[in-house]
Amino acid sequence: MTIPLSLVNVTLEYPDGGSTIKALDAVNLTAGAGEFLSLVGPSGSGKSSLLAVAATLVTPSSGLVLVDGQDATPLGSRERTALRRDTVGIIFQQPNLLPSLTAVEQLLIGEHLRGKPLRAARLRAAELLDVVGLAGELNKRPHQLSGGQRQRVNIARALMGSPRVLLVDEPTAALDMERSEAIVRLLRRVTDEFATATLMVTHDTEFLPLTDSVVTMRDGRLGAPVRNAA
Ligand SMILES: Nc1ncnc2c1ncn2[C@@H]1O[C@H](COP(=O)(O)OP(=O)(O)OP(=O)(O)O)[C@@H](O)[C@H]1O
After folding, report:
1. What is the pTM assigned to this prediction?
2. Residues within a 6 A CB radius of ligand 1
3. What is the ipTM, given to two decimal places?
């Protein structure tokens, strides 16, 4: 079995006036199947850049980005899109659900666009909505769901393609404490159940113990992972 996510000596530079800024500076990171990592660090330290590179949305200036064993860095945009679609699930802070679609349709739209048969997809969508605790809400539209429920739809949608890697950017930023904890617990359960390598950017230090290890970014550099007590 290949390692789901491995970043090797990844540097990402952006032009900054006459010089450059290193958003990522020789970053090394490995996330195994079923491993839940949290990524913390001050604003501007490079967390979003790291997620964007791991998602193959941004190609680094140097280094390797191995997703499911395949280096994404030499790939063209079409191949990267295919690799991402087959291996990566992305969960942003705001669910970005389409207002006119029901919960189950939110999960089907991507499959529909990919030309996948909808009958099997519909079954899988219903199963995943059950996994995230929304079995009774399949036909509700976003405005009929709470913020926490919308984030659950977002998580279920990210699982539709059976990703090996889940990249999660501040999933609880718009939620109160209780709902935030429920969402992080759900991500823990999903990581265990689907054996994803899950990398979550968060500012909620109280939920760090629910993850396996904490990695800290500072000025584009990544500290060694600190394992939580089992
Ligand atoms: N597209 C870009 N062009 C130029 N500089 C950028 C770009 N994106 C990020 N940067 C710079 O790279 C550095 C890292 O930014 P990044 O957004 O990754 O940090 P962050 O830790 O996610 O911050 P926050 O917690 O505020 O979201 C910052 O100095 C930022 O200004």
Report:
1. 0.94
2. 14, 21, 23, 41, 43-49
3. 0.94
